[in-house]
Design a protein that fits this description.
The structure is a single chain. Strand 1, helix 1 and strand 2 (35-40) form a beta-alpha-beta unit. The chain starts with 10 loop residues before the first strand and ends in a 9-residue tail after the last helix. The chain is α/β, with parallel strands linked by helices. 39% of the residues lie in helices and 17% in strands. The longest helix has 22 residues, at 86-107. The protein has a domain at 11-175 and 209-241 and 310-324: NAD(P)-binding Rossmann-like Domain (Rossmann fold). The radius of gyration is 20 Å and the shape is globular. The strands form 5 sheets. The chain has a 7-stranded parallel beta sheet with strand order 3-2-1-4-5-7-12, sandwiched between helices. The structure holds NADPH dihydro-nicotinamide-adenine-dinucleotide phosphate and the ligand CC(C)=CCC[C@@H](C)[C@H]1CC[C@H]2C3=C(CC[C@]12C)[C@@]1(C)CCC(=O)C[C@@H]1CC3. Ligand LLCNDLXC is lined by residues 81, 117, 119, 174, 182-183, 186-187, 190, 295, 300, 303-304.
Length: 345
């Protein structure tokens, strides 16, 4: 009888490996001696030791060719959170994740690490030092979060120690760093349009912003700790910088670092949220006639005006996690990485 060759434990696949987090993860894995298959809908770079497989994760056959001889899979693909395409989120984050799980099982993959989000427990009201045992949001702030909840449930439920298919979910929050297409570019765009003069609320709300290398570190620790007898099987883990910061201080540091003025004038949270909601409704109604994307969506206003920071004690205890880059250093590296976004550039 032919014996099945056990895939090398240093051979892994990163689904979503062309994206912001995915690429940082791939680079670190290569540094650590892994050989990596990237599966993504697009290819954005080339790297020695990395093979690229272009395809849609909803296509199981396409996935299977990228998972050949792979024992460990990271799933960090998702449509951009700023999209309001509900069907796309459902197709990729829910149905696509079911396909990923099935493809992993069919390919004999032993470990699946999902990039979830700490926002799966966030309903637009304060979360202070939230732990992993908080219930999933009953009223998630948007379709993105709604489908991240379903996605996380699917992956954690699929964990089967008897069958040797092990899963874990990492819940990062507010990832930032070089090449991030979202946070800094949106902020600078708003500043260039003169929209960053105001602080929403009293400006004291603490939130987590997590430097991308810390998020990568949490993923790799989780993968390396994931064994049939480990307590981490089928569990979610918050990964943060462990340095909650005032939302508006963080934004101001990035803005000032890039040569823009920090926001100064306060506006009441309820008023801004109400206006954002009205604008959102209006753009929704007028969608067939015009396309207009407001900067201050209700979701962004909720994130800008409430507390949302999370405890990473469980990751420290079970994974031996500790942030490797401080917030101050992360901000410095991020600001330096965007010369093209500096004021006047
Ligand atoms: N950024 C953040 O602050 C946070 C992110 N997360 C999670 O982290 C993960 C990575 O996020 P981030 O790196 O910021 O996102 P990116 O958009 O930069 O990366 C996601 C990648 O997945 C690709 N992708 C999208 N749909 C498919 C598909 N159907 N098949 C294959 N590939 C696909 C994207 O391609 P394309 O760009 O062409 O769509 C992109 O290359 C996501 O799961 C996100 O939910 C969690 C918490 C916070
Ligand atoms: C008020 C304003 C215009 C701020 C600009 C920055 C925002 C674009 C970011 C501030 C908090 C960020 C955030 C996310 C995306 C970018 C921000 C809204 C996520 C929604 C990304 C995906 C997640 O899983 C949760 C994140 C929470 C924080």
């Amino acid at each position: 009888m032919a014996t099945r060759i056990r895939p090398s434990s240093k051979r892994c696949a990163v689904i979503g490996g062309s994206g912001f987090l995915g690429r940082h993860l791939v680079e670190k894995l290569v540094d650590r001696g892994y050989s990596v298959s990237v599966f993504d809908i697009r290819q954005s770079y080339e790297l020695p030791g990395v093979s690229f497989h272009q395809g849609d994760l909803c296509d199981k056959q396409a996935l299977l060719s990228a998972l050949e001889d792979v024992s460990l899979v990271f799933h960090c693909a998702s449509p951009a959170p700023a999209s309001d395409d509900r069907l796309l989120f459902e197709r990729v984050n829910i149905k696509g994740t079911q396909t990923v799980i099935q493809a992993c099982i069919d390919a004999g993959v032993q470990k699946l690490v999902l990039t979830s989000s700490a926002s799966v427990v966030f309903e637009g009201t304060d979360v202070k030092n939230g732990k992993e045992d908080l219930p999933y949001a009953k009223r998630p702030i948007d379709y993105y979060t709604q489908t991240k909840i379903e996605q996380e449930k699917l992956v954690l439920k699929a964990c089967d120690q008897q069958k040797g298919f092990l899963t874990v979910a990492i819940r990062p929050h507010g990832i930032f760093g070089p090449r991030d297409p979202q946070l800094v570019p949106t902020l600078v765009d708003a500043a260039r349009q003169g929209k960053m003069k105001f602080i929403i609320g009293d400006g004291t709300n603490l939130v987590d912003f997590t430097y991308v290398e810390n998020v990568v570190h949490g993923h790799i620790l989780a993968a390396e700790c994931l064994r049939a007898d480990s307590p981490i099987c089928g569990k979610p883990y918050h990964i943060t910088n462990d340095e909650p910061v005032r939302f508006w201080d963080f934004m101001s540091e990035i803005l000032v670092g890039l040569g823009y003025a920090a926001p100064r004038f306060h506006l009441p949270y309820g008023l801004v949220y109400g206006i954002a909601l009205l604008l959102w409704l209006l753009t929704w109604i007028l969608r067939p006639f015009m396309s207009f994307k407001p900067t201050f969506t209700p979701m962004r206003v909720a994130l800008a005006g409430t507390y949302h920071y999370y405890s990473c004690e469980r990751a420290k205890e079970h994974l031996g996690y500790k942030p490797v880059v401080s917030l101050k250093e992360g901000i410095k590296r991020t600001v330096e990485s965007y010369p093209q976004l500096r004021r006047g550039a």
